[in-house]
Each structure stands twice: as structure tokens, then as C-alpha cells.
Amino acid sequence: MKILFYDTKSYDRDSFESARINYPEIEIEYLKSDLEPRTAALAEGFDAVCGFVSSNIGKQTLEILHAKGIRLILLRSAGFNNVDVDTAKQYGMRIMRVPGYSPEAVAEHAMALALACNRRIYKAYNKVRENDFSLSGLMGFNLYQKTAGIIGTGKIGAAMCRICHGFGMKVIAYDVYENESLKDFVEYVSLEKLLKESDLISLHCPLMDSTYHMIQLDTIKQMKDGVILVNTSRGALVKTDDLIEGIRMHKFAGVGLDVYEEETDNVFEDRSDEILKHSTTARLLSFPNVMITSHQGFFTREALQSIAQTTLQNAMDFLAGIYGPNDIIQTH
Ligand code: NAD
Questions:
Q1: What angle do CA 295, 186, 298 make, to 5 degrees?
Q2: Sign of CA dihedral 203, 204, 205, 207
Q3: Segment (H or E) for 29
Q4: 157 lines ligand 1 (CB under 6 A)
């Protein structure tokens, strides 16, 4: 089976080449370019393609892939908001993902962002490097006995609940379904109550029509003053212009973002000063209490190994006609 991998970096090649030792039937060709309508035709002669979080797997891309005979699209990610599921269904294409490769990797990064914002670690680091050992501007607050509000308590949100519980925080959560495994230490509340009572709010629900811009001016105004907001899920859960307004209103002690709305626009790949100057992400970066990382929540050794192993197993399951929870279109 020949698979064309899009948007690959050296670490993808390393992890997939190690995992491939157990899958001699699979041949991989690695591309640096991402999957989008202009690059979809490169899949001619392959059996499957593999994309990542920024891949454009919309209608047009799917039409081209279908015309090239591709019946399987592998995603090296958990989220699949970048896929036009209806079109894929219409063409009978299978889309397989890696739903839970290492929830702790992302949850630990969410807590790292919360701690870094709260204790001004980036500022402290820069000050000490400049030989400034004063503590001015570095005061934070104890997380111990404060309230963590977790939105979305699936695999990653549950891991974040456990971490916050370990910090001695009261943990409240909002989800459309309650996670039974958390019932001993998590109290489910309405979104309004969560926004009103939390000292730390962390977003862990997927991006869907119902969650698009769930954090906007109205929801920001309901939050406590001095709250820390962390988003490691998907950028468009937060309306960036409103977040900027909230920061200007001094609503937040800190904002930690691993994901941001412009991620898929490749704003930062085309590093023209003009584009950067006008991007909302650059505007966010101008605030001293905002910390942005570049979608690295998943980026641990363990997670990469697990992504590679599951992705290749997904390809084998496709060949064997086995359907399961990694299929985003449940037909069986
Ligand atoms: P999951 O499917 O296990 O959990 C998602 C949870 O969100 C579920 O419990 C679901 O019921 C809940 N949910 C759905 N709609 C909701 C709503 N309207 N309000 C509140 N909760 C709602 O997913 P997961 O593995 O925990 O991943 C969560 C998200 O994290 C993914 O969708 C992806 O976008 C993101 N992610 C980010 C990274 C990263 O590197 N930063 C890596 C992996 C995943």
C-alpha cells in the first residue's frame, strides 16, 4: 500500500519510519507541502493520503482526490473539523483519525501554559537573562484551593481535570455529556456558572458549529476578573477580536493559547511584515499577559510514537475491511 504524506516535518518522518518496521506492506512518500486543492492531484498513483490539522480536506480537495482514485484519507490528528464529512460520505471515502494518542500530552501543555501565564515565567526568564533579578511584575496567585473550570471532559479534558485535582483545585466542568470516571472529584455545572466561578478556564471541546466562537464578548463578560484562560483545543472556539477587547478590559490575569484562529491561514508561513502586522495573532502577542505556542500540545515523544503506530494500523484496518472508532464516518 502506497501512502502520500502531506505537511511532514523531520520528526514525522523519524516517528513513522520507526513505526513502519512493523508494517512492511506500507510504503510512504513524504511531502513538505500541505494537502489542499492545489496539491491534491499529487496523490495520483497512491492508494491513500495522510494529512494533519491544517490540511484543507474540503469539498474541492475531496473531489480531486476522488478523481485520482483515493479511497482512504488518514489523519495524524484527533480533531477533524477540517474535513467536509458530507462530501467524503457521498464519495464513499474512508477517513480515519487518531482519537486519543496521548491526552496527557495536551493536558500537561495546557497546565504548562496556565502556570507560565500565572507565574509570568516568560517575563521572569527574560528579566533574569538581562541581569534583572527584581520581582516586579511577576506576582501570580496560588492555584491551590482555587476553581478550575474545564469545558469539554472527553479524553484531554478528563486528563486536565485530574491534573487540576492534583494541584488541590476545586474542579467544575461543563460538557454536553458527563464523564462517569470523573464523578468523584468533578462537579458538572452550567456554562454560565463555570464562567462565573472559575479562576482558570481551560477549553477541551472539539470545534463544531455548536462550539464555534463559544468564547466571545458575552461569555468573556460573564467570567471573573483576573481569570486565566487556556485554549489548547482549536483556535475558532475563541473569537479573537472579542478576546482582544476582553484583554483591554483587564479581564484576564493571563491568556495561554496553543491554537489560534489564523493557524490554518498560514499567516506565519508567509512571513511578510505587512501580513504579520495586521494579523490578530500578532495583535494578541503585543499584550504582556498573553502567551502563544504554536500548536505543540501533542508534541511529545510518546504522542508521536502513538500517532505513527495508530495511523499505520488504521491503514492496515482499511485493507482488511475492519471498521472501528477511528473511522470518522460510522457506517457499520
Ligand atoms: P474527545 O472527543 O475525547 O472529547 C471532547 C469532549 O467535548 C467530549 O466529552 C464532548 O462531549 C465535549 N463536547 C462536545 N460538544 C461540546 C459543547 N458544545 N460544549 C462542551 N463540551 C462539548 O476529544 P479529545 O481527545 O479530548 O480532544 C479535544 C480537542 O482537543 C480535539 O477536538 C482537538 O481539537 C484538540 N486537540 C488539540 C491538540 C493540540 O496539540 N493542541 C492535540 C489533540 C487534540
A1: 15
A2: positive
A3: strand 27-30
A4: yes
Cα–ligand 1 centroid distance for 50 (angstroms): 21
Q: How far is the CA of 101 from the centre of ligand 1 (A)?
A: 13
As annotated, the active-site residues are: 234, 263, 295
C-beta 309 within 6 A of ligand 1? no
Q: Is the CB of 297 under 6 A from ligand 1?
A: yes
Ligand 1 centroid–CA 233 distance in Å is 7
Q: Is residue 79 lining ligand 1, measured as CB closer than 6 Å? A: yes
CB neighbours of residue 167 within 10 Å: 17
5 lines ligand 1 (CB under 6 A): no
CB crowding 269-297: b at 16 or more within 10 Å, else e: eeeeeebeeebbbbbbeeeebbbbbebeb
C-alpha radius of gyration, the chain, whole number:
21
Distance from residue 139's CA to the centre of ligand 1 (Å): 32
pLDDT of the chain, 332 residues: tens digit per residue: 999 999 999 999 999 999 999 999 999 999 999 999 999 999 999 999 999 988 999 999 999 999 999 999 999 998 899 999 999 999 999 999 999 889 999 999 999 999 999 999 999 999 999 999 999 999 999 999 999 999 999 999 999 999 999 999 999 999 999 999 999 999 999 999 999 999 999 999 999 999 999 999 999 999 999 999 999 999 999 999 999 999 999 999 999 999 999 876 544 455 556 556 678 888 999 999 999 999 999 999 999 999 999 999 999 999 999 999 999 997 65
Atom number, ligand 1, closest to the C-alpha of residue 157: 26
